[in-house]
Amino acid sequence: MEAFSGLPRKLVVAGVVVDDRGLVLITQRRADQSLGGFWEFPGGKVEPGEAPSTALVRELDEELGAAVEVGAVWDVLHHVYPTFELVMIVYGCRLRPGQAARAVEVADLRWVWPRDLPGHDILPADRPLVGRLVAEGPPPWPVPRTSSGG
To answer: Is 4 a domain residue?
Structure first.
């Protein structure tokens, strides 16, 4: 059993955004952010009182300028960074029809085949997702939609 680190804990959400061909969207952190230049699965912090699925819709709209459909929870990860603990709820997602992702609040974005993800410098907290995507492929779609309660 893992001992409690005593560090502040952050709840975040991330989306494994998949297109019709099976490509997965990753985004690059801006240079002015901590761990700038690393690639990650898009998402962000859950605000107090906010449902995780609602937070993901908001974050992806802010980062990518695109509306998404959020499916079921695909994974839950825990990672300890030097100054905080991260708990990440990961959902399977698709862009809504007619939407196109663009780099709004991120340095860059790429659609990549799951097998090519290991060639990118992925954030440490997101690396288990890379292994799962390489082994299993992207989350199946359609996936059950989450309730409005997240």
So the answer is: no
